[in-house]
């Protein structure tokens, strides 16, 4: 018959998801109480989109109608975009002949970008609004200060190794 992808046994009251994975109805019903993603491929699933599989010799009753206790489904929020470990990204660019200059760019991953330096500094300045509360902005500011100090220290160390002409 069919093997359940949760209990790895022959599926009792087999059902299949829209993404094509087989489960026992009791197993997937318990899974649906805590998650709305397929346990195998993480695509979205719901009770309404699960298809019962009727095999020869099995009863013709819809396995989704059994008396398995249901809890109200929780509200699922979209995950925040992945960020770097310190909630920011930094980049350095340098322009070579015939356009000398350099630029530092700091981005906090939440829509705000700070540029410093560059030959055309006024055109590079960008600051975009972010809908975040004060508690989330404070760690970002601390991260910017720390990273700025790290870049300054690295710049100082590297420049000390360059001989003066």
Summary keywords:
165 residues; alpha+beta; Herpes Virus-1; 3-stranded antiparallel beta sheet; rod-shaped; ubiquitin protein ligase activity; Znf_RING_CS; zinc-finger; Znf_RING/FYVE/PHD
3D structure, described in words:
Helices cover 24% and strands 16% of the residues. By secondary structure, the chain is an alpha+beta fold. It has 2 domains: 1-79, Herpes Virus-1 (2-Layer Sandwich); 89-161, no CATH class. The strands form 2 sheets. It has a 3-stranded antiparallel β-sheet with strand order 2-1-3. It has a 3-stranded antiparallel β-sheet with strand order 4-5-6, with no helix packed on it. Strand 5 (101-107) and strand 6 form a beta hairpin. Mean pLDDT is 68; it is low at 69-75 and 119-130. The chain crosses the membrane at residues 144-164. Its EC number is 2.3.2.27. InterPro entries: RNF5/RNF185-like, Znf_RING, Znf_RING/FYVE/PHD, Znf_RING_CS. Pathway: Protein modification; protein ubiquitination.
Give the SSE map.
Blueprint: E1 14-16, E2 22-24, H1 25-32, E3 51-52, E4 89-95, E5 101-107, E6 113-117, H2 121-124, H3 134-161
Antiparallel strand pairs: 1-2, 1-3, 4-5, 5-6
Short description:
The chain is of the alpha+beta class. Helices cover 24% and strands 16% of the residues.
Helix content: 10-25%
Task: Please state how the strands of the largest beta sheet are arranged side by side.
Answer: 2-1-3
* Secondary structure tally, helices: 3
Supply Rg. 28 Å
Oligomer: single chain
CATH architecture of the largest domain: 2-Layer Sandwich
Question: Main sheet, how many strands, which sense, barrel?
Answer: 3 strands, antiparallel
The string of secondary-structure elements, in order, is EEHEEEEHH
Which consecutive residue ranges, at least 5 long each, have pLDDT under 50? 69-75, 119-130
Shape: rod-shaped
Kindly state the number of beta strands: 6
The fraction of residues assigned to DSSP E strands is 15-25%
Structural class: alpha+beta
Q: How many domains comprise the coordinates?
A: 2
CATH topology description of the largest domain: Herpes Virus-1
Mean pLDDT: 68
Q: Any idea what the CATH superfamily of the largest domain is called?
A: Zinc/RING finger domain, C3HC4 (zinc finger)
């Amino acid at each position: 018959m069919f093997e359940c992808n949760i209990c790895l046994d022959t599926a009792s009251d087999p059902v299949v998801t829209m993404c094509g994975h087989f489960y026992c109805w009791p197993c997937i019903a318990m899974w649906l109480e805590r998650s709305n993603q397929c346990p195998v491929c993480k695509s979205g699933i719901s009770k309404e989109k699960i298809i019962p599989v009727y095999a020869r010799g099995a009863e013709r009753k819809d396995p989704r109608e059994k008396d398995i206790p249901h809890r109200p489904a929780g509200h699922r929020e979209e995950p925040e975009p992945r960020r770097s470990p310190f909630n920011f990204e930094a980049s350095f660019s340098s322009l070579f002949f015939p356009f000398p200059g350099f630029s530092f760019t700091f981005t906090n991953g939440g829509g705000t970008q700070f540029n410093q330096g560059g030959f055309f500094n006024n055109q590079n300045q960008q600051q975009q609004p972010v809908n975040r509360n004060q508690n989330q902005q404070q760690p970002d500011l601390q991260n910017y200060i720390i990273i700025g100090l790290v870049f300054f220290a690295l710049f100082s160390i590297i420049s000390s190794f360059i001989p003066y002409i």
